[in-house]
Task: inverse folding
C-alpha cells in the first residue's frame, strides 16, 4: 500500500495525517498523530439500505483502548466492555457536526469508528477523533458535504488558546469544543467559569479561524488521495404523490394546526394522517411512506411560515416568551435534598444525595482523572412523553443530557476543603416537551440548595431555537423551545449559567451552519431568558439551607501526619475497624493525611475524631488518659489502653500510692475491664510508657488514699547493693550493670 503523509500545525503543535497504509478495506481511513497521541479513524458504508429503512442510520463510536496509556482494564475479563461515559460523550461530539452534512435521502448504514491507539494525557485524543472523522469521510467515496474542522479553545489570562495542554486547562476559564465548515459553525460544546456572552462568542469565533485553516488542509489532502464520490439513488418523494397530497390536505392541515393546545393539535394531526392515508390507499398503493413524508414536510413548512411571517409559535407565544414556570422544594422527606422544576409541559424532579469520599465515582478512561466527587445523572422514562414502552438502561441521549447538566453546575460546586462530601444529583424527567436537560439544571440547583450544599451561585438553563429561510433571507430565534419547535427547527442551542455568566453551552445545528450574527443574538436572548428563570427559582428558595438534612451524614475533616496513617489503620485494619464498630461512623483517610469522618450522630463523629487524634498524638509526661485495663499481670502491673493500638503500664509497686499501702498483686486493686484515669510519668529506653493511677472510674470500688499517705517501702541499707557496685564505671563491672539493665528490659518487655 502507498503511504501518504501530510503535516500541519494546530495550536502550536505539529499534527501528522497518514493515509493509505492501514485498514485498506474501509471506504476511508486515516491516522492522526500529535506528539505521542495517535488516533485511527475508519469509515464504511453499506452497499444498500436495509429493507424498510426510513431514516439515516449513522453510527459513530469513539473507542477507548486502555493499552493506549499502558493500563490493563479493571473488569473481571480484563478487556474493554461498554464504552465509558467519556467515550460516549466523545462519540456524540464526533456525530453532531457531521450528521447534517450527509445528503437527504441517504438511508445506507454509515459507520464511523475512531480508536485511540496511544495517548499522551497532555494531548487529549477527543479532538483528533473529531478531526479524523472529517478527513476519513472527505477522502472516502461516501457522499459527504464536508469537510469540517474541530478544535478545543480555552482562555488563559485573558488570551484564547487552541487545544490547551494540562497546565493551560487548569488555568482556563473555558473549555469549548467547536466544529464547523469554512463558512459556518456546526457544533459547540462548552463548559465555563461564569464567562460573559462576549467572552464566549470571542472564543467561538477564534476557534472558527483555526477551523478554516483545517478545512483548507483537508481539502488539499482530498485533492491528492480522495476517492470520487459514489453516485447514489437517494430516496425522494415522487412529484405525483407530493402534488396530490398537497392539493387534498392543504386547507385541512391549516385547520388541524389552528390551536395552541398541544394535545388537541396532535389529535387533529393524527386524524388528518389517517384521512389522507385512507384517501390515497388505492391511488398510491405501496407508497404510504411518500404520502406520510409529504404530509410531514407540509406541516413543517406551515409551522415555520407562521413563526417567520407572523411571529406566532405553535403554543401562541412570541419569539422571546418563556413558558409558565412553577417550582417547589423539599418534596421528598427522607432524601437529603429534592426539588421539582416545571416549565410548560417539561417537568424535572431532581434529588440530591450526599456521601463520603469513598462514594466518589471511580473512572477507568484515558485521562489522569481517577475519581469524580460530583455526579449528575438524567433519566427520561417513557411515561414522560405519554408512551408505553419497556424501561431501558440510559442511552447516549440520557448520558449526554446528564453530562451537560453536570458541566453547567460543576463551576458552582464547593471545593472538597469547604464541603467534604461526594454529591450525586439525579434528575427524573416526569414530563417532556422540550428543553428537559435545562429543566434538570434548574431543578438540580434547587435540590442542591435544599440539601444545604453551599453552591457559589444558582444556575439556570434555557434552550434556544432557530427558524431560518435562506431563500428569502428571513430568520427567527426562539426562546425556550418546545418539542415541536426542536423537531421542525434548525437549531437546538442550550445555554446555562448564573446571574454573572455562562457555565455551559451545547449547540446542535440541522442546517449547514450559523454565522456570528445569529450566535450573538441567540446568546443575548438566552441571557435575558436565563435571568427571568432565575428570578422564578429564587422566589421559592433564594439560598442554600443552613442545616443539612437530619438523614444526611455529618462529615468532619482534619489532617494527621501521613507517617501515622499506619497506626490509625492498624494491623490488617484492626484498629480502624474497631473505631468504626464502636462509633458507627465511616472513616476515609487520604494518602496526604486528610481524614474524613462521616456519621449521622455528631457525638459519635467527634468521638471517632478524638480516638484518632489520641492514636497519632505522641504522649508527653503529664498527659492524662482514660481507658480500660486490657491486661493484668499480678507481679508486674496493669496494662491500660490509652488509644487503640497503644498501651501503657501501671507498675504494681505504684498501685500502693493509690490505696495507701503495699500491694502484692495487681488484682488487689485492678482487674481486666476496669476503666481508669492515668497519667504519663516516664518513658523507658525502649519507648514504653510508664503510668500512674490517677483514679479508678469503674469496677470494684476501692478507696483512694489521701495524697502522700504512703511511700513505697525500701529495703534496709544493709540489704542494698554497695554504692560502688551500683555506680562503678570499671570495665570489669560494666557487664553486670548491663545484665541488670537487660533484666529490667525483659521485665518491662510487654509494656507496649
Result:
Amino acid at each position: 500500500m502507498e503511504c501518504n503523509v501530510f503535516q500541519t500545525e494546530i495550536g502550536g503543535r505539529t499534527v501528522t495525517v497518514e493515509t493509505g497504509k492501514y485498514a485498506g478495506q474501509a471506504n476511508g481511513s486515516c491516522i492522526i498523530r500529535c506528539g505521542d497521541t495517535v488516533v485511527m479513524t475508519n469509515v464504511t458504508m453499506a452497499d444498500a439500505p436495509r429493507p424498510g429503512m426510513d431514516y439515516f442510520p449513522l453510527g459513530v463510536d469513539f473507542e477507548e483502548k486502555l493499552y493506549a496509556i499502558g493500563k490493563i482494564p479493571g473488569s473481571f475479563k480484563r478487556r474493554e466492555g461498554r464504552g465509558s461515559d467519556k467515550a460516549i460523550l466523545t462519540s456524540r461530539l464526533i456525530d453532531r457536526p457531521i450528521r447534517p452534512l450527509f445528503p437527504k435521502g441517504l438511508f445506507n448504514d454509515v459507520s464511523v469508528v475512531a480508536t485511540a491507539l496511544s495517548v499522551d494525557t497532555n494531548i487529549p485524543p477527543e479532538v483528533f477523533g473529531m478531526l479524523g472523522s472529517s478527513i476519513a469521510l472527505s477522502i472516502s467515496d461516501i457522499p459527504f458535504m464536508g469537510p469540517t474542522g474541530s478544535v478545543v479553545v480555552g482562555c488563559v489570562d485573558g488570551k484564547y488558546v487552541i487545544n490547551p495542554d494540562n497546565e493551560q486547562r487548569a488555568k482556563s476559564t473555558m473549555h469549548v469544543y467547536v466544529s464547523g465548515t469554512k463558512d459556518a459553525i456546526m457544533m459547540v460544546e462548552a463548559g465555563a467559569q461564569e464567562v460573559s456572552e462576549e467572552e464566549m462568542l470571542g472564543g467561538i469565533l477564534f476557534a472558527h479561524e483555526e477551523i478554516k485553516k483545517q478545512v483548507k488542509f483537508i481539502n488539499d489532502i482530498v485533492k491528492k488521495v480522495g476517492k470520487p464520490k459514489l453516485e447514489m439513488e437517494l430516496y425522494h418523494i415522487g412529484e405525483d404523490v407530493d402534488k396530490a397530497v398537497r392539493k387534498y390536505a392543504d386547507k385541512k392541515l391549516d385547520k388541524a394546526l389552528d390551536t395552541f393546545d398541544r394535545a388537541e393539535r396532535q389529535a387533529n394531526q393524527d386524524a388528518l394522517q389517517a384521512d389522507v392515508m385512507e384517501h390515497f390507499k388505492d391511488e398510491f398503493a405501496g407508497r404510504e411512506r411518500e404520502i406520510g413524508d409529504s404530509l410531514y414536510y407540509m406541516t413543517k413548512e406551515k409551522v415555520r411560515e407562521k413563526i417567520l411571517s407572523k411571529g406566532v409559535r405553535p403554543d401562541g407565544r412570541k419569539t422571546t416568551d418563556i413558558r409558565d414556570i412553577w417550582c417547589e422544594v423539599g418534596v421528598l422527606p427522607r432524601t437529603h435534598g429534592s426539588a421539582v422544576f416545571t416549565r410548560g409541559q417539561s417537568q424535572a424532579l431532581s434529588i440530591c444525595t450526599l456521601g463520603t469520599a469513598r462514594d466518589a465515582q471511580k473512572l477507568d478512561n484515558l485521562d489522569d482523572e481517577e475519581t469524580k466527587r460530583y455526579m449528575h445523572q438524567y433519566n427520561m422514562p417513557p411515561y414522560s412523553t405519554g408512551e408505553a414502552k419497556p424501561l431501558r438502561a440510559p442511552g447516549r441521549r440520557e448520558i449526554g443530557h446528564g453530562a451537560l447538566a453536570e458541566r453547567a453546575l460543576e463551576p458552582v460546586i464547593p471545593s472538597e476543603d469547604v464541603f467534604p462530601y461526594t454529591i450525586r444529583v439525579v434528575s427524573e424527567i416526569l414530563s417532556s416537551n422540550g428543553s428537559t436537560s435545562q429543566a434538570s439544571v434548574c431543578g438540580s440547583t434547587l435540590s442542591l440548595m435544599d440539601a444545604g450544599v453551599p453552591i457559589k451561585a444558582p444556575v439556570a438553563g434555557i434552550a434556544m431555537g432557530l427558524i431560518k429561510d435562506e431563500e428569502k433571507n428571513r430568520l427567527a430565534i426562539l426562546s425556550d423551545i418546545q418539542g415541536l419547535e426542536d423537531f421542525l427547527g434548525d437549531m437546538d442551542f442550550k445555554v446555562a449559567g448564573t446571574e454573572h455568566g455562562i457555565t455551559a453551552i451545547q449547540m446542535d445545528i440541522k442546517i449547514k451552519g450559523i454565522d456570528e450574527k445569529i450566535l450573538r443574538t441567540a446568546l443575548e436572548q438566552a441571557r435575558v431568558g436565563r435571568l427571568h428563570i432565575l428570578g422564578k427559582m429564587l422566589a421559592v428558595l433564594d439560598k442554600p439551607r443552613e442545616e443539612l438534612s437530619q438523614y444526611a451524614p455529618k462529615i468532619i475533616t482534619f489532617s494527621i501526619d501521613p507517617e501515622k496513617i499506619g497506626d490509625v489503620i492498624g494491623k490488617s485494619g484492626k484498629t480502624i475497624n474497631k473505631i468504626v464498630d464502636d462509633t458507627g461512623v465511616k472513616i476515609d483517610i487520604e494518602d496526604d493525611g486528610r481524614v474524613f469522618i462521616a456519621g449521622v450522630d455528631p457525638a459519635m463523629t467527634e468521638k471517632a475524631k478524638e480516638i484518632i487524634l489520641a492514636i497519632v498524638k505522641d504522649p508527653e509526661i503529664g498527659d492524662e488518659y482514660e481507658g480500660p485495663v486490657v491486661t493484668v499481670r499480678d507481679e508486674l502491673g496493669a496494662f491500660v489502653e490509652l488509644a487503640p493500638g497503644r498501651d501503657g503500664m501501671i507498675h504494681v509497686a505504684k498501685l500502693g500510692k493509690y490505696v495507701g499501702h503495699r500491694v502484692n498483686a495487681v488484682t488487689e486493686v485492678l482487674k481486666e475491664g476496669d476503666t481508669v484515669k492515668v497519667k504519663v510519668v516516664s518513658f523507658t529506653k525502649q519507648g514504653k510508657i510508664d503510668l500512674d493511677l490517677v483514679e479508678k472510674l469503674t469496677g470494684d470500688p476501692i478507696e483512694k488514699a489521701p495524697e502522700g499517705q504512703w511511700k513505697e517501702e525500701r529495703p534496709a541499707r544493709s540489704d542494698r547493693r554497695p554504692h560502688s557496685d551500683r555506680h562503678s564505671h570499671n570495665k570489669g563491672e560494666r557487664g553486670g550493670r548491663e545484665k541488670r539493665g537487660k533484666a529490667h528490659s525483659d521485665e518491662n518487655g510487654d509494656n507496649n
